[in-house]
């Protein structure tokens, strides 16, 4: 039947138009430069339905109730058909897309753009994309192979290419078309078509003929042409049965046959491995977007603009009291960023001229140097970064994790087991993710519990009380209205149990402008029968158990959240934290001489902290030694009655205190004098004291003889009270008090003793004083040595303090030193002081084996 042409009617304004049929063929869908898509029942339809999709529409495709359009805002959009309701954005380009098509089953679309790129996008999950690069000019048209193995494309560079979809390589390329620099200047838009169902032939319109190429061999089978064709035509469809098999060889010897271009790769290389997920920054949008979020977290937002007008970075804080908004130039092409209460961290990839850089803007520092930059070694790129409290981390392509202080000091470096996917930091914790499943985002919530979001929108939280397993706490897909809608998670809170996220209509990522609104979703565990009262109560109970376990973990580890502004020169103080106390004191003097008064103040505070820590450590060691000694005394002697067991009245205690006061003062002066001689200076040492309080009567049971009384005075023992033969009779610990004394008055009245700031002993002074002779004491002594058991059982206790011999128990080192003193002196005849002998003895004693040192310790016991 001869074809009849109906009269042409008005469809759109002047400019480019596109047309397609619906699945049933009952209506025609057109789009044009006026930005409207019109649905025509037939050519006589005077009132077609119109859908506005943008300022201009360049191409449209329809399949399975989805209308896909390429519009002038450089996006490929989806609308429902025939309602025309927007259903999201499938993909974006840097320029406008020229052609868009569906594959055979409508699960994928292909789009070609003026930026020379071709993309294949999954309609259901737009994050599943494949990009084909190779054209050197804008893409004119595309066509899917019916078997979804090949994709044909035509370009303004004059070539027609066939792409192998699975491995994204070019199978063949023909230089058939006339070259041009833009679509508007092309003489033909070169619409391509495959033979339906089988796809054996590919039809390509070239000038006034149509060339047909055979699949896989890519040889030109024959050309279609006629004398009545006066201008170039485009193929819109290749009908089944139009060509007969016996005509295949009619044009075998045609001069138009072109040589076969060898493919870049073999057609089949075996099964392809699953593509590895590339590193990403949590809270960021994809890199290919010209306007994107580099990070969005609970501190603020970092936006990146990379277009023809500007290449810059904007930093905005949720709480402006932390820092004001900042505008940065992106001349180094930073790709990843992180933001904390202390700093802004940026990183860039390496180029042929520049190395990969890590740039930190330390805005919380008050000094003049508020930023620092570190270059990575050659051939090492930064792939992921994160910030914590006082530190920064960068994972590189060399499988290394590099730690830095927030002031820029390089710290530990360790190897990663595999390529990094993402990192997150909170406080002193660092979470690193490697390749297994595809993770969409990861977080530390405000109470430092690790969480992550997968590509299906499920939020999972670490359950420390259940073997460090991951528990799903929210499914964002349940809150989406459309299939193409998603939620972009920006924050997770345990108290209240909420999820902060941004709803994305028809897309996975929000646009930068206008600023999107943040929505709040409540946590809900995926328990069964959640609609019933039983299921709701079960879900609430186990959710409360999980979060209660997190609070127990925080209480166990002593987490405290302090809000303070660090006002110090970070790098100097961070280096000083690694020094000894003596080196810190020298640093304080150097800072004072350099007129760095604030730095000197900070370093002096650090020196005081180190001194306090050292004093606390020594006090703990003394307490442990004293407790061990008392346990030995309790185990080695009987429970005979002592002076602590005797009844004593309060008035008698006061009288005894007054009577003993003078005796105490007479003993105090020679003791202090002796300490002054041992130390070699006029500095005094504090001696700890045990203040015994009033003792109850014996009929009230035994009491604790070591209990410290609240009384400020030290009552002395009654001289008239009956003493037992137990060694505890003479066990009274005198008070260590610092004093300045006069040697001329040692035998006279005791001087006034005023407490001074305690100074920690050096190790040499402590060791030297350990071997010095001490005056005999009864009530004011530091340690008590066991007396001879024979004397303790046979002789009566001596009441006079001057006749009681109080010696410190010997240690294993003392016994070893007494035996080897002659060897040390013979090897070192220049040693004249006891401290030198002790120091050399310590070195030799430490060189002994563990068994030998243990043997000497046992001998001392």
From TrEMBL:
Compositional bias (Polar residues): 718-749
GO cellular component labels: nuclear replication fork; nucleoplasm
WD repeat placement: 9-41, 132-173
BP-aspect Gene Ontology terms: DNA repair; DNA-templated DNA replication; mitotic cell cycle
Ranges for domain HMG box: 806-861
Gene Ontology MF terms in the entry: chromatin binding; DNA binding
Ubl conjugation as UniProt keyword: yes
Ranges annotated as DNA-binding: 806-861
Summary of subunit composition and partner proteins: Trimer. Interacts with the polymerase alpha catalytic subunit POLA1. Interacts with MCM10. Interacts with DNA2. Interacts with CDC45 and GINS2 subunit of GINS complex; these interactions associate WDHD1 with the CMG helicase complex.
Role of this protein: Core replisome component that acts as a replication initiation factor. Binds directly to the CMG complex and functions as a hub to recruit additional proteins to the replication fork.
Protein name: WD repeat and HMG-box DNA-binding protein 1
Species classification: Eukaryota, Metazoa, Chordata, Craniata, Vertebrata
């Amino acid at each position: 039947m001869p074809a009849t042409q109906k009269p042409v009617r008005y469809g759109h304004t002047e400019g480019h138009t596109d047309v397609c049929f619906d699945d049933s063929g009952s209506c025609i869908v057109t789009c044009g430069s006026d930005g409207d898509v019109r649905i025509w029942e037939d050519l006589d339809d005077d009132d077609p339905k119109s859908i506005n999709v943008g300022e201009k529409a360049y191409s449209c495709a329809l399949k399975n109730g989805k209308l896909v359009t390429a519009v002038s805002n450089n996006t490929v959009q989806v609308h429902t058909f025939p309602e025309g309701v927007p259903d999201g954005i499938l993909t974006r380009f840097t320029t406008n897309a020229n052609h868009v098509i569906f594959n055979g089953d409508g699960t994928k679309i292909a789009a070609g753009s003026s930026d020379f790129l071709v993309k294949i996008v999954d309609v259901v999950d737009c994050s599943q994309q494949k990009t084909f690069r190779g054209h050197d000019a804008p893409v004119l048209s595309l066509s899917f192979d019916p078997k979804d193995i090949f994709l044909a494309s035509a370009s303004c560079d004059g070539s027609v290419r066939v792409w192998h979809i699975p491995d994204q390589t070019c199978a063949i390329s023909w230089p058939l078309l006339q070259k041009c620099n833009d679509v508007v200047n092309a003489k033909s838009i070169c619409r391509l078509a495959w033979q339906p169902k089988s796809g054996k032939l590919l039809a390509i319109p070239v000038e006034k003929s149509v060339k047909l190429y055979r699949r896989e061999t890519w040889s030109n089978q024959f050309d279609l042409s006629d004398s009545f064709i006066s201008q170039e035509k485009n193929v819109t469809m290749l009908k089944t049965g139009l060509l007969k098999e016996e005509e295949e060889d009619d044009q075998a010897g045609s001069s138009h046959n072109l040589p076969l271009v060898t493919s870049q790769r073999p057609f089949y290389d075996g099964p392809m491995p699953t593509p590895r997920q590339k590193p990403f920054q949590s809270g960021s949008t994809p890199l290919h977007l010209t306007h994107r979020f580099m990070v969005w977290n609970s501190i603020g937002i970092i936006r990146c603009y990379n277009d023809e007008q500007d290449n810059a970075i904007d930093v905005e804080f949720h709480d402006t009291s932390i820092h004001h908004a900042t505008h940065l130039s992106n001349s180094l092409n930073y790709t990843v960023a992180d933001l904390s209460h202390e700093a802004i961290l940026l990183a860039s990839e390496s180029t042929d001229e520049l190395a990969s850089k890590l740039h930190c803007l330390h805005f919380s520092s008050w000094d003049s140097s508020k930023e620092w930059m570190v270059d990575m070694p050659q051939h090492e790129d930064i792939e992921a970064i994160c910030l914590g409290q006082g530190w920064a981390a960068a994972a590189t392509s060399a499988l290394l994790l590099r730690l830095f202080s927030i002031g820029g000091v390089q710290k530990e470096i360790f190897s990663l087991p595999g390529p990094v996917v993402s990192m997150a930091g909170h406080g002193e914790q660092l979470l690193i993710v490697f390749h297994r499943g595809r993770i969409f985002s990861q977080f530390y919530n405000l109470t430092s519990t690790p969480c992550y979001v997968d590509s299906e929108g499920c939020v999972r939280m670490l359950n420390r009380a259940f073997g460090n397993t991951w528990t799903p706490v929210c499914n964002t897909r349940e809150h989406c209205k459309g299939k193409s809608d998603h939620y972009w998670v920006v924050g997770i809170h345990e108290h209240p149990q909420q999820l902060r996220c941004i709803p994305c209509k028809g897309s996975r990522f929000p646009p930068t402008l206008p600023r999107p609104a943040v929505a709040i979703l409540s946590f809900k565990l995926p328990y069964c029968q959640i609609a019933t009262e039983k299921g709701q109560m079960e879900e609430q109970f186990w959710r409360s158990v999980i979060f209660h376990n997190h609070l127990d973990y925080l209480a166990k580890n002593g987490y405290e959240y302090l809000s303070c502004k660090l006002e110090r020169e970070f790098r100097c103080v961070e280096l000083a934290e690694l020094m000894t106390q003596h080196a810190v004191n020298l640093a304080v003097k150097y800072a004072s001489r350099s007129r760095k008064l604030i730095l000197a103040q900070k370093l002096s505070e650090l020196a005081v902290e180190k001194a306090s820590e050292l004093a606390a450590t020594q006090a703990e060691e003394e307490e442990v030694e004293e407790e061990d000694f008392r346990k030995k005394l309790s185990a080695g002697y009987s429970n005979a009655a002592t002076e602590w067991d005797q009844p004593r009245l309060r008035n008698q205690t006061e009288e005894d205190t007054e009577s003993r006061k003078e005796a105490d003062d007479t003993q105090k002066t020679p003791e202090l004098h002796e300490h002054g001689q041992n130390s070699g200076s006029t500095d005094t040492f504090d001696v700890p004291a045990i203040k015994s309080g009033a003792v109850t009567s014996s009929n009230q049971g035994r009491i604790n003889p070591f209990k410290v009384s609240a009384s400020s005075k030290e009552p002395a023992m009654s001289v008239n009270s009956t003493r037992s033969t137990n060694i505890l009779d003479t066990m009274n610990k005198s008070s260590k008090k610092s004093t300045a004394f006069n040697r001329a008055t040692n035998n006279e009245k005791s001087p006034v003793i005023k407490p001074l700031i305690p100074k920690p002993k050096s190790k040499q002074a402590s060791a030297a004083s350990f071997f010095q002779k001490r005056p005999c004491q009864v009530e004011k002594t530091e340690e008590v040595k066991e007396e001879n058991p024979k004397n303790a059982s046979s002789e009566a206790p001596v009441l006079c303090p001057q006749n009681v011999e109080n010696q410190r128990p010997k240690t294993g080192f003392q016994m070893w030193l007494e035996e080897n003193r002659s060897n040390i002196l013979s090897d070192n005849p220049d040693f004249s002081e006891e401290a030198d002998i002790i120091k050399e003895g310590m070195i030799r004693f430490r060189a002994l084996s563990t068994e030998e040192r243990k043997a000497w310790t046992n001998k001392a016991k």
